[in-house]
Here is the input.
Amino acid sequence: MKGDRSAEPAAWEGPAHSRATPTSRASPVELLLQVGASLHATLVVDRQGRIVWMDPVLAGAAGWRSGPPVGHSAQEVLGGLPWLLHAFDAALAGTDGLCEDGGEGQRLSAVVVPVFDEDGTQVGACARLRKSERPRPEAAGAPQALCLGAVEERRAREHLEHQTSLLRATFDSITDGVIVVDLARRITAFNKRFQEIWGLTDAMMEERDAEKALASVEPRVTAPGRFIAFIREGFEPTFEYRSSIVELRDGRVLECKSIPQLLGEAIIGRIWSYRDVTAERQALAEQARLLVAEQEARERLEESFAVLDTFLNHAPVALGFIGRDLRYLRSNDALAALHGRRREEELGKTVREMTPQMAPFVEPLMRQVLDEGTPIIGLNMTGEVPSTPGEQRHWNVSYYPVRTASGTILGVGVVVAEITAEYRAQAERDRLLREAEEAIRIRDDFMSIAAHELKTPLTPLKLHLQMLKGQADTGHGVASRHVDKALAQLARLSLLVNDLLDTSRIQAGKLELATEPIPLREFIREVLLDFRGTSSLHSLRFEAPDEPLVILGDRARLAQVLTNLVENAFKYSPTGGTIRVTARRMGTEACVSVKDEGIGIPKEEQAHLFERFFRARNAPISGFGGLGLGLYICRDIIERHGGRIWVESEVEHGSTFHFVLPCL
Ligand code: ADP
Here is the structure.
């Protein structure tokens, strides 16, 4: 073993290539410890026979009770194991030895080898012990040192070389950079990866000076002060396990861990390992960046949805998004309101659930959009919705296919614009237009009727006046019947003109009343006197009230009303009959009725009788003309007196006109 370097524990020395130039030198104690560790020695002594390291169990077996044996002489400590001491003496004298001792059935054997430095100088000796059950040979007597045979020595060396190469390969193949520094701050071991990580040259490592190596890596660290302090703290012997993150200026990040190097229970140095966690850190940083980006994207999306919701909910039209299963995925307040719901209640509900009345019309349209992918725009719809049951409303509706970027149709976008107001306005405009056209027609009719009515009395009037003139020219006396006839036509003309004037006064709100208390019975009698002998076909009867009825009214205007009603009764009973005028009390009112047996008035036209220019379609069969103004004026006069006027009639069974006035 002496001078045979191949048997030395290379893994304790550093990478194999560093041994090519053995410029550095371990101290004798280090060398002893390294060799001792590699041999799994239980006892190591230096050249002077002082204990460098001793297994506490062995110290106990040797009977040593005086504290740590390190530093004491083997002589003192191994007093209880004289055979071992003997073997050490031999080893320190340069002889390899094998010795043994034993009790009954068990014995201890020890291989004790001298340890030499590179120069061949002996620095001490190591002993490795083992237990053996083999019975002691009879011949064996007192312990003795035996010389190691050549075969056993070779086996031991080969075993050591095998273990050493295994350790070396393992040490150099790990991905962590490892360095071992002893208490004297000397580098006792390191691997290739350590050199690579820190970029340290072989020359630097050969020096084995931990402080120098530290100084050379200092500029590469971003926070050198902290790093140096961390490493130096580790140089002090402590059982503490330590770790730190070291950032390098080139961007790499190292994870540093350190543990004490122990020989038995004693700290003999510290092991540092460095792992390049740059990629890991970058991955973590990237992950964090992605998380932030995702968070930001989510926030932007939420913002977009918030903006969308704001627009949706403040849009003047109803908007919704319906999925392929015709369920609401989104809707705005306006659409929900149509359904008489809140927006949240719509989500997930079917179209049929929300609008049962409209579903039969709208579902096929939505399916068409989903199937064909083409929009349906500007459809006018009329129907009923749950929010306003029984009311027909009108909408302008559009359906759009909603697609993903790849073109898949996700659902239908619905836009519903309420046009009920416009629709009703249009209907109102149409009605007004019809009325205006009707008014124009009536006016035109009136013009021709008025012209006719005004002209009709003129011809007989002219005739009678010509006859009167002829009689006057020939010196004959003027025939009074011509004068009467002319006056009658004049009266008729005058009535027509008065009706026209009254109508225009009513229209202008200028028909005025001069009221006075009127005893009704006498008043009616007086008016009816004018009709005496008017017609041979008719008989006129007055059924006077049982009690005196007095009203407050305009005598002339009320006479005009009664006259008009009685004249009509005559006029529209061309075949004659009885005309009955009655007056009676009806509660606080006096009711006057004029009943005839004439042509009657069609039911559907009765409501229009009191309108301006209205003439029933059967009026012409009476053979009399008229402007359709009399009843219009009558109603206005009666209503100005605080009364009412109405008619009961049946075609061909006569008519009865009633009016009531408040009694005094
Ligand atoms: P006019 O008799 O000049 O046409 P009115 O205003 O007095 O105008 O009457 C309006 C219409 O009412 C008449 O054209 C006629 O069609 C109907 N009418 C009025 N009185 C009677 C009646 N007694 N019997 C049947 N129709 C009547």
Summary: The radius of gyration is 67 Å. Residues 420-473 form the longest helix (54 residues).
